[in-house]
Specification:
25% of the residues lie in helices and 22% in strands. It has 355 residues and is α/β, with parallel strands linked by helices. It folds into two domains: 203 residues, Alpha-Beta Barrel (TIM Barrel), CATH 3.20.20.10; 95 residues, Lyase, Ornithine Decarboxylase, Chain A, domain 1, CATH 2.40.37. The strands form four sheets. Strands 2-3-4-5-6-7-8 form a seven-stranded parallel beta sheet. Strands 1, 9, 12, 15, 16 and 17 form a six-stranded mixed beta sheet that branches. The structure holds pyridoxal-5'-phosphate. Pyridoxal-5'-phosphate binds next to loops.
Length: 355
C-alpha cells in the first residue's frame, strides 16, 4: 500500500446501516443486496459478507462469474444472476445453487422440467431483458410452459424510479400487476433503490436496491437519506512553484495567471478518476476545496494549491469522502454516481472498515 498513489477506504458499517434503513422503508418484504459490478466497484465479496452477517439473505449479481466469486461468502443466501443463463451454463447454476433470472421463452424452456428455483423477469418498459409483450402473450396462453420450474419470484425493473413524478412508474406498476395476475401465483420483486422511496404501492415481496447501499442518493433533488460509504484519498507526489504564464498538463489547457504552486496527486483516469473532470473537478484538503487544473492524466491529477501552503509531498488530498460524494463528482463529470463508483480501478488498494 505504501507504493500506491491512492487508497480507497470502504466503510462496511455504513453499507450495513444503509441496508437497515432500506429495510425500515420497505415493510412489504425483505430487502436484497444487489452487488453486481463487483459490488458497485467496492468489492462484492466483503460487501456481500457484511450484509449477510447483518441478516441479508437475498443477493443479485449481473453475471454467473460474479455469483461464483461470492457463493462461498454467503452460504445460505439466495444468489441470483440478473443476466439470465447462457446455453451450457446450467450445470454451474445447479452445482453452486445459483438462481437464474429467466427473461425469455427460450430461457424458460431450458429450465422447464428441472424443478429448480428460478426468477421470472417481465419487461414492463425497459426493453432490455425480461419477457416482452409478445412473449408474455404466449406464456399467458400457455402457462404450462412454466411447469417444472420452482418460480421463487416474478420481477420487473423500473425505468425512472429516481424521477418520482414520472408517469412511467405507475404505468409499469400496473403492467406488472396485470402480468402477475395472469401467471401462476408467486412472490413478486419490484423496487430498486429509488423505487423503495416511491411509497407503499411500490412495495413487494423482495426489494432489489444496489446504489443506495453504497451511498448514492435514491431521491435526487432531495436530501440524501443514505450514509456515505467511500473515501478516496490520493497521495501528493510532488509540489512545485511555477511562474505566471507557465502551463500545466497535456495540451497546456491551463496556464498560471500568477506565480503558482502546483500539487501533483497520484490518482488519474486509470484509477477511475474521470477525465471529464479536467479543468473542472476539485479535491479537498482539510475540508477546503482545492481546484483541479489542467487535464486529468492516466496516473496523475494536478491542483492549484497556491492558497494552501500546508499541502506538501507525502500528504493526502480527499477525492471522494465526507466533503465530496460520488454524486457530486458525477455532476461535475457529466455522469452518474454509479459510473463514478464502478470505474474505481482495482489497482487502488481497498481498506475495509469493519461493520
Ligand atoms: C441494477 C439493478 C437493480 C439495482 O438498481 P439500483 O438503482 O442500483 O438500486 C435492481 N434490479 C435490476 C434488474 C438491476 O439491473
Amino acid at each position: 500500500m505504501e507504493a500506491a498513489g491512492g487508497v480507497l477506504h470502504v466503510d462496511l458499517g455504513a453499507i450495513v446501516a444503509n441496508w437497515r434503513l432500506l429495510v425500515s422503508r420497505h415493510p412489504a418484504g425483505p430487502v436484497a443486496g444487489v452487488v453486481k459490478g463487483d459490488g458497485y466497484g467496492l468489492g462484492a465479496g466483503p460487501v456481500a459478507r457484511a450484509l449477510y452477517d447483518a441478516g441479508c439473505r437475498h443477493f443479485f449479481v449481473a453475471l454467473l462469474d460474479e455469483a461464483l466469486a461470492i457463493r462461498d461468502r454467503i452460504p445460505n443466501a439466495m444468489l441470483a444472476v440478473l443476466g439470465g443463463p447462457t446455453p451450457g451454463s446450467e450445470p454451474a447454476y445447479i452445482a453452486h445453487r445459483i438462481v437464474p433470472v429467466l427473461g425469455s421463452l427460450r430461457e424458460i424452456e431450458a429450465w422447464a422440467g428441472t424443478d429448480l428455483p428460478a426468477i421470472l423477469h417481465i419487461d414492463t418498459g425497459m426493453s432490455r431483458l425480461g419477457l416482452d409483450a409478445r412473449e408474455m402473450a404466449v406464456l399467458l396462453q400457455d402457462p404450462a410452459r412454466l411447469s417444472g420450474i420452482d418460480v421463487r419470484y416474478i420481477m420487473t425493473h423500473l425505468v425512472s424510479a429516481e424521477a418520482a413524478n414520472d408517469p412511467l412508474n405507475e404505468h409499469q406498476r400496473q403492467r406488472f400487476a396485470e402480468a402477475c395476475a395472469g401467471l401462476p401465483p408467486a412472490p413478486r420483486s419490484f423496487a430498486n433503490s429509488s423505487g423503495i422511496f416511491l411509497g407503499e404501492k411500490f412495495g413487494s415481496d423482495l426489494a432489489r436496491p444496489g446504489a443506495a447501499l453504497f451511498g448514492i442518493n435514491p431521491t435526487p433533488g432531495q436530501p440524501n437519506p443514505m450514509r456515505q460509504v467511500v473515501r478516496l484519498m490520493a497521495r501528493v507526489l510532488a509540489v512545485r512553484d511555477i511562474p505566471a504564464g507557465a502551463s500545466v498538463g497535456y495540451n497546456a489547457t491551463w496556464r498560471a495567471t500568477r506565480p503558482s504552486r502546483i500539487a501533483t496527486a497520484g490518482v488519474g483516469y486509470a484509477d477511475g478518476w474521470d477525465r471529464g473532470l479536467s479543468g473542472r473537478g476539485r479535491a479537498f484538503f482539510d475540508g477546503a476545496p482545492v481546484p483541479l487544473v489542467g487535464r486529468v492524466s492516466m496516473d496523475l491529477t494536478t491542483f492549484d494549491v497556491t492558497d494552501f501552503p500546508a499541502v506538501a509531498p507525502g500528504g493526502w488530498l480527499e477525492f471522494l469522502g465526507a466533503h465530496q460524494s460520488p454524486d457530486e463528482v458525477a455532476a461535475l463529470a457529466g455522469t452518474n454516481g454509479y459510473e463514478i463508483l464502478t470505474s474505481l480501478a482495482l489497482r487502488l488498494p481497498r481498506v475495509y472498515e469493519a461493520a
